[in-house]
Input
Amino acid sequence: MLEGRWKLVILFHLFGGKLLRFSDLERAIPTISQKMLIQQLRQMETDGIVTRIVHHQVPPKVEYQLTEWGQSLCPVLDALLTWAEAKP
Amino acid sequence: MLEGRWKLVILFHLFGGKLLRFSDLERAIPTISQKMLIQQLRQMETDGIVTRIVHHQVPPKVEYQLTEWGQSLCPVLDALLTWAEAKP
DNA sequence: CCACCCGCTTACCTTCAGGTAAGTACCCTA
DNA sequence: TAGGGTACTTACCTGAAGGTAAGCGGGTGG
Output
């Protein structure tokens, strides 16, 4: 569920309860393609990690946010980072 | 460092300070190919996660073991599992 | 003298994640 | 009427991850 080049990168941008638009994420991760960005976001949505909030406007506005469960990943990944930094 | 189909599977078999031979791992993970098994073990060795212990005998005997740092991954991955099981 | 054991190594092939580029729908503004 | 902003969607292509199968080295049991 967390595999692939992009999932963790996206997650890190959403941690802290941030509410980001599609274009915000595009700008925050300039090296990702639009295709990969939605693909990963959609997968994480069906996995219950993020929430999609659609505002019916023109031009369109869609925001993404971590679910509570998604947020609870934060300390775990933090522990992983700590582990990685402890490399002898 | 932990990506790919096999790294985590191998790790879980080595947790608990277990000392396993190449053939032990092969039997423990019947769906892995020999090629992938050494490839991943070697990578984890250069990453400092596992230790290779070669006994100069015939037939050859090589054992694998987690380094201390590798062992310290155990509680972290445990936390990940706990998170995954908490899926609503 | 042959076959076998174990831990690889090599060559070759298939599959799929991910990249690129272009297009769509919708309304708004100039 | 033309162009732009936003969030996608689609078609096509490439490289790398991983699978399969066969071979090697060298001592040992039959």
In short: Residues 21-23, 26, 34-35, 37-38, 58-62 of chain B lie near DNA strand C (CB under 10 Å from a C1'). The longest helix of chain B spans residues 34-46.
